[in-house]
Amino acid sequence: MSTAPQLHLLARAVIENDGHVLLAQAQGHAHTFLPGGHVEPGEGLRTCLARELAEEMGLHVEIGAYLGVIEQGWQDGSWGRHHELNHLFAAASPGLTRLQAVMSREPHLTFAWVPVSELEDRALMPSPVRLWLAGKERGGNFFASTLEQG
């Protein structure tokens, strides 16, 4: 008998500066991801994103336009199946540029400014966000899925 996948609702920030994007990486994992995190029950997406960025980096971040959503599914060994909805928002922090190191307030995370041209090398997940950031899919609200083809 198959068990239902764990559902994850996330808000993620696209923080760009001078051809670079701010990425997060969890210790012990090869892939990177956009900063942000899980929405708590009763919490709005924008509120979640502001909270997560303050917790992770100690930054006051201005949450901008809604950019789109990427759904992703994966199998995690004994943890089972996962289904994730990543809502993407433009975001900026006054005075923050790619020339500044972003320090993590959470010991399991690190942050780095990465040139858009190097996103493939950084194993940015979910994978459709790489195309969007490279400009191939920009314009209007973006939707992509690793669960559906086409």
UniProtKB/TrEMBL annotation:
- Where would one find coiled-coil regions in this protein? none
Any idea what this protein is called?
NUDIX domain-containing protein
Co-factor(s): Mg(2+)
Q: Which UniProt keywords apply?
A: Hydrolase
* Organism superkingdom: Bacteria
Q: Which InterPro entries match?
A: NUDIX_hydrolase-like_dom_sf, NUDIX_hydrolase_CS, NUDIX_hydrolase_dom
Q: Does the keyword S-adenosyl-L-methionine apply?
A: no
Every Nudix hydrolase domain range? 6-137
PANTHER family per UniProt? GDP-MANNOSE MANNOSYL HYDROLASE, MUTT_NUDIX FAMILY PROTEIN
One example of the protein's molecular function in GO is: hydrolase activity
Question: Organism source for this protein?
Answer: Deinococcus terrestris
